[in-house]
Structures are given as C-alpha cells and as structure tokens.
C-alpha cells in the first residue's frame, strides 16, 4: 500500500485529491493538511509520497521541502510539487530543494494515480504543462555540450540508465528494459546522481535530455549482434588456396613428424639400408642363406 500525504492551503483541493486517490486499491491518503502543519504531519505519518503545494500563504512548499530534507535522522518522502501555470519562477528552486516532480492541480484523475505510483517506485513526474519550462530553464542556459561533458563521466551502463531516467521510467521500468535486477538499477541511479554532482532524479532527467541521451539508448545497448558482414570468429573456414598441413596425431594443422603409417610405407619402399626393397629380394634369391645338413631337423639339440 502506497501511503500519501496531501499538503495544500485550499480545502477543496485537498478533498478532491483525497477522493481521486482513494479510488486506487493500492493507494491510501493517510493525512491532509495546510502548510503550517506540513512538517509535523509528514514526520508523524512517514508517507511514501508527498503531494505538496508550491505556494501557500502561511508556510510555502519550498520551505516545507527544505525542512524535510534538512533533518539528519529523517528521510524525506518522494515529493511532487502541486503547481499552476503561473508558478514557473519556483520550479528551479524546487528542483534544488529536492522535488521529484511537478503536477498541475487540474491533472486528470488517472494521470494523478499513475504519477503517485511512479513516485513511490523511485521515478519522477513532470506534467506536460511545465516540462518545457523545466527543460528550457533549469540548467541556466547552459549549452548541450556542457551536459554532454558531464554525462561523459559516466560508464556506458550508467548512461543507459540515465537515458531511461530521462524518458521518465521508474526503477522497475528501467530494470525490465535493461533486464537487470531492481537493486542493481537503484545502485546505478545512486552512482550516476553522485557523479553528476549530487543531482536529484528530475535534475538528472533534464541533463539527460540536454545531453541528447533520451531516445538514443539503442546506440549503446550491450549485447547487440555483430555488424553485418563480420562472421563469427569460432568455426571460420580455412582460407582458399591454403591446404591443411600434416601434423601430429590429434593435432591437425600443426607441423610435425610423419605419422607411423607414413613411416612404415617409406620403410617398405626402401628397406633397412635405404636400398629399394626389390633389389634386396633379388640378392636373397641369388645368395640363399646356408641351411641345416640333410637329414637333420630344424631343432637345436
């Protein structure tokens, strides 16, 4: 069950979000409150996801977010800022404060439920109405080459994970896409965020887009088949015009001594003293060896 806290200064907004999220069987809204009670409510309920209004009259969402992340013994929940189209000046500050996404208050119910699930799984969410603002303004006008240089510090696998973070995938989605364990993906995400200077997930997603990694995963995906025209190394046939050289028994193709059958055949042609075998047979016929005297047996007494 995903536990959610909703913080907004308008009672109507709080009630509406509670009603929408209450329709999901795996989501429970454990508390709703205004900005003044936000920090105490979050610490009391320890939710998985916090939906936090970015502008409130008593205590604004940025202050709440900074206080939650400043606590040494507390882990801030995954936080999406609730915003409107006229709050663009707060987006960069919210990213620096640790926000994991932005949602418009008039987000469709099914999109809101999906966003909460993505946040709980470690992902990030950006409402279409604020995506262009975040991508265009967060990095302070830096050129894409700067983002490319920062991404170049990562390993090939970390760049693949970063590209999928930029596509908005959660850790589970990345694990499925890359055929990795969920814990392995979490380790890669933590490592790449640290290498990029301690960015949060949304900031890393923006950098991935500026570096041109989003949508280019296939270019670096491991396990690709070899390029056409390059046959596999094992089992390559002999080159034409190069006959196999004789070798020792059990070692074809290696130069060595002639085999035993070849030596026996050679001996049969030339005899014991290097003379042709036919000449030796003629010599034996002309000069037979002396035999035993007549009348004697061939046995020795």
Characterization of this structure:
Strand 5 (101-104), helix 5 and strand 6 (125-126) form a beta-alpha-beta unit. With 301 residues, this protein is of the alpha/beta class. It has helices at residues 11-21, 38-45, 61-70, 91-97, 109-120, 128-137, 144-151, 156-166, 171-178, 182-195, 201-210, 260-270, 277-286, and strands at residues 2-7, 27-33, 49-53, 78-83, 101-104, 125-126. The longest helix is centred in the middle third of the chain and has 14 residues, at 182-195. It has a six-stranded parallel sheet, with helices on both faces. Helix 8 (156-166) crosses helix 11 (201-210) and helix 9 crosses helix 10 (182-195). The chain has 13 helices and six strands.
Number of strands: 6
Structural class: alpha/beta
Order of helices and strands: EHEHEHEHEHEHHHHHHHH
Strand order of the largest sheet: 2-1-3-4-5-6
Shape: globular
Brief account:
With 301 residues, the chain is an alpha/beta fold.
Supply the key terms:
disordered C terminus, single chain, 10% strand, 13 helices, 6-stranded parallel beta sheet, 301 residues, alpha/beta
List the helices and strands and how they pair.
Layout: E1 2-7, H1 11-21, E2 27-33, H2 38-45, E3 49-53, H3 61-70, E4 78-83, H4 91-97, E5 101-104, H5 109-120, E6 125-126, H6 128-137, H7 144-151, H8 156-166, H9 171-178, H10 182-195, H11 201-210, H12 260-270, H13 277-286
Parallel strand pairs: 1-2, 1-3, 3-4, 4-5, 5-6
Helix pairs in contact: 2-3, 8-10, 8-11, 9-10
């Amino acid at each position: 069950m995903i536990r959610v806290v909703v913080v907004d200064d308008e009672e109507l907004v709080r009630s509406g979000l509670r009603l929408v999220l209450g329709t999901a069987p795996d989501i429970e809204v454990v508390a709703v409150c205004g900005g003044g009670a936000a920090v105490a409510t979050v610490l009391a309920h320890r939710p998985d996801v916090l939906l936090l209004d970015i502008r409130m009259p008593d205590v604004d969402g940025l202050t709440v977010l900074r206080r939650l992340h400043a606590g040494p013994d507390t882990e801030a929940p995954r936080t999406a800022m609730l915003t409107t189209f006229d709050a663009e000046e707060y987006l960069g500050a919210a990213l620096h404060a640790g926000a994991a996404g932005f949602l418009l208050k008039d987000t469709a119910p099914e999109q809101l439920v999906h966003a909460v699930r993505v946040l709980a799984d470690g992902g990030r969410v950006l409402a279409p109405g604020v995506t262009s603002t975040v991508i265009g303004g967060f990095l302070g006008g830096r050129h894409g080459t700067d983002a490319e240089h920062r991404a170049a510090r990562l390993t090939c696998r970390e760049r693949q994970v970063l590209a999928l973070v930029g596509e908005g995938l959660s850790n589970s989605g990345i694990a499925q896409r890359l055929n990795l364990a969920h814990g392995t993906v979490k380790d890669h995400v933590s490592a790449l965020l640290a290498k990029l200077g301690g960015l949060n997930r949304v900031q890393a997603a923006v950098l991935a887009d500026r570096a041109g990694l989003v949508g280019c995963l296939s270019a670096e995906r491991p396990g690709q088949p070899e390029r056409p025209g390059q046959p596999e190394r094992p089992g390559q046939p002999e080159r034409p015009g190069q006959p196999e050289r004789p070798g020792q028994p059990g070692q074809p193709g290696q130069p060595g001594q002639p085999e035993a059958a070849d030596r026996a055949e050679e001996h049969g042609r030339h005899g014991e003293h290097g003379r042709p075998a036919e000449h030796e047979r003629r010599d034996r016929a002309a000069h037979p060896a002396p035999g035993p005297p007549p009348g004697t047996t061939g046995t020795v007494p």
